[in-house]
Write a structure and sequence with these properties.
Chain lengths: 347, 347
C-alpha cells in the first residue's frame, strides 16, 4: 500500500476486498453475505463512486452494531409467477439483499428470456452500476431501481415526500464495453450546492427550492429546502415510477413510509428494489450484438464536439475506464475509510 | 357536432372513431388495422394530446398514399424465448404495429407474469399513454418506449444523432385511477421555443443549443440548433437507453440509421418499440393494490402546495380527468383535422 496524497491511499482490489470482508465478518455477518456485500461496494470504489463504496461501512457498521440492520438475515425467495420473483430481505444489508435478488432474477431470465425480481424488507441499496455490470457480463440487459429515504418534495409541493430514487440501465457488449447508466432523479447532488455556498456563488434556479417549495438561486436557502428533479415534472414522474415499481409493487414501504437510516438508524427501513433482466442471447448472436453496440457508440462519439477539448462520450465510459485503470494500478481510497475498515476488522 | 370556437369543434368519441376508420379504410388499410390505429389516436385526442391524435392523418395519410408506409402489412409475431416476443411490423403504420405488439406482450405476460415484446420494421409510434392505459385497464404495469427520428445532439456534440425518444410507465389501480407517465427526453418541445421567439422572449439556457452545440438563451439560435435533454447527461443517457432497447435490441434501426418521416416520407423508417408488461394480479389482490395506490397518491397530494392555487398532482391525473370529461361531453378537435379526415374519407 502506497501513500499517494495525504488523505488518499492506493490499495489493490484483492486487498481491499479482503479488508472489507474482515470488517463485515467482525460485525457478525456470514462469509457468503460479506462476499456479496464487499463485491458490490468494491465495484463502486473501482468505478470511482466513492460515496457508494466501502465508505458506507460508516452507516452500515453503525446500524449493524445497534441491530438496525439484521446481520444474519434469512432471505426468502419465492416464485410469484414463472418469471416473477419476490424476495423478503429480512432487514439485511441492502447490497446483500440486492445480490441475492439479482442472482434469482438472472436464473429466471435464463429460463424465460426475461424476469423481474422484487425485493422488500431491505435497506440502503448502494450503487446500481455494479449490479448492471455483473448482469451485463453474463449477457443480460437490465433495468434496476430502488426507492430511498424521502428528500424531495412532490412537484409543486413543499415537504419531503419522495426519495431521490436511483434508476439504472445496462446493455451488454460481448466483445467490448457495455453501456451503463446509473442516475438519481435530482438535477445535482446536495454536495454541489454545498460547494456553491462555500465559494459564495449563486446556483441556477433549477437545482433546488427553498423550504417553502419555491425555486431559488441562493445555495443556503436550497440547502434548507429540497432538491429539484431533472426536467421538473418529468423527473418527479420518473422518481415516482421507480418508487411504484421498487416499493409499492414489491410490497415494501414507499414514499414517507420509508424509515430514514439517518433519523432512525435502529429501525428497519423496509426499502424495496426491482431488477428487470433480459437475456440478450435470445435476441441474436454475440457477434450481432457486439457489432451493433460498437456501431452505436461510434455514431455518438463521432459527433464533432461543441468544445474541441471535450470529445463526446457514452454512458458508463468514464466509470469503466476508471475501473480498468484501478484494477491495474490499485484503487484510490480515502485514508479515513481504510482506517475505519481496519478498526472494524480489529486490526 | 357543435361549433365551440371558430377553429375547434366538439365531436363525440364514437363519431370520431368512425370518421377516423372511414378515412384510413379509404387509404387501403384493413378493418382490424384501422380499428387498432383509430383506437390509439382517439385515446390521444381524449387525453388532450392533439399533436399525437388524429391530426397525424396528415403525415400518415401522405405516407400511406405514396407507399412510404405499407397499408396492408403482414405483421409477423415470433416467440424468441418463452417470455420474449419479436415482432416484424412489415413497415405498417406505427400504432398498428404497436397494438399488435402490445397484445402479444399481454398474452405472454399473463402466462409468465412478465414479458417483453420488441417491434422492428415500424414507423412513427404515436403517443405512449394510450398503450399504458389499455395495459393498466387489464391489470398490467408497463414500461414502454420507442425510438424516433434524430433531432437531438449527443451531450457535448454538435449534430443530430439521437431521437427525442419517448418513454412511458403505467401502474394500474383496480378501483381508481392508474398512474401514467409519458415523457420525451427534451426539457421542452420545440413549440415552446417557437412561442418564445414569437413573443420576443429569451429562453433559459437549459432548453437548447445553437447549431454549434453551445447552450443559448436566444430562441432563434435554439431553433437552428438542437433541443437539450432533461438533466443534461442524465436525459442524454436515458434517451440512449430507450434507443438501445427499442432500436438496437429489437433489431430495428437506431440513431442515424432511422429514416426521417419528414425528409424521406416515401421510405420505411424501420423504427423499433419495446413493451415490458408485468401482470400485477400475480403480486397481490386488487384490494391490496388499490389501497396502496390510493394511499400513494394521497401522500403526494397532501403536500402543502408552494403556490396555494396549484395543488400537487400525480402523473396522468390531468390527462385522465380530460379523458373522462371528453368521453362525457365530446372531444374538442381542430376543424382542420376533421376536414382532412372527411377529405380522406371522401365525404
Amino acid at each position: 500500500m502506497n501513500t499517494k496524497a495525504s488523505k488518499n491511499q492506493i490499495i489493490q482490489e484483492s486487498e481491499l476486498h479482503a479488508l472489507g470482508k474482515r470488517a463485515f465478518l467482525k460485525l457478525g455477518m456470514s462469509d457468503q453475505d460479506t462476499d456479496d456485500l464487499t463485491r458490490i461496494l468494491v465495484l463502486a470504489d473501482l468505478f470511482g463512486l466513492s460515496t457508494h463504496g466501502l465508505s458506507r461501512i460508516e452507516s452500515y457498521g453503525d446500524r449493524l452494531k445497534i441491530g438496525g440492520i439484521n446481520s444474519q438475515p434469512h432471505i426468502q425467495i419465492e416464485r410469484l409467477a414463472p418469471a416473477i420473483i419476490g424476495v423478503n430481505g429480512d432487514n439485511g444489508v441492502g447490497p446483500v439483499v440486492g445480490m441475492r435478488t439479482l442472482n434469482a432474477a438472472m436464473e429466471a431470465a435464463t429460463e424465460f428470456g426475461i424476469a423481474i425480481a422484487f425485493a422488500r424488507g431491505s435497506n440502503h441499496f448502494g450503487p446500481i452500476s455494479p449490479y448492471s455490470l455483473i448482469a451485463a457480463d453474463k449477457g443480460f440487459a437490465s433495468i434496476i431501481g430502488s426507492n430511498a429515504t424521502t428528500t424531495i418534495a412532490p412537484w409543486g409541493g413543499s415537504d419531503a415526500r419522495l426519495g431521490n430514487s436511483p434508476l439504472g440501465f445496462g446493455v451488454p457488449n460481448p466483445n467490448g464495453k457495455p453501456f451503463l447508466l446509473d442516475m438519481a432523479m435530482s438535477v445535482v447532488a446536495r454536495a454541489k450546492i454545498r460547494n456553491a455556498l462555500k465559494f459564495g456563488e449563486q446556483i441556477p434556479n433549477t437545482w433546488g427550492t427553498d423550504a417553502k417549495g419555491n425555486a431559488t438561486t441562493d445555495p443556503k436557502a436550497a440547502l434548507d429546502g429540497f432538491l429539484l428533479p431533472i426536467g421538473g415534472h418529468k423527473g418527479y414522474g420518473l422518481a415516482l415510477m421507480v418508487d411504484l415499481f421498487a416499493g409499492l409493487l414489491s410490497n415494501a414501504a414507499y414514499l414517507t413510509h420509508i424509515k430514514s437510516w439517518q433519523d432512525a438508524p435502529d429501525e428497519p427501513q423496509n426499502l424495496g428494489h426491482f431488477f428487470i433482466l433480459v437475456d440478450t442471447k435470445r435476441l441474436g448472436s454475440s457477434q450481432w450484438l457486439s457489432e451493433r453496440m460498437i456501431d452505436f457508440a461510434n455514431i455518438l462519439m463521432e459527433s464533432p464536439p461543441a468544445d474541441p477539448s471535450k470529445p463526446v462520450i457514452v454512458p458508463g465510459m468514464i466509470e469503466l475506464a476508471k475501473l480498468e485503470r484501478q484494477r491495474r494500478d490499485g484503487i484510490e481510497m480515502s485514508s479515513e475509510t481504510l482506517e475505519l475498515l481496519k478498526q472494524y476488522a480489529g486490526e
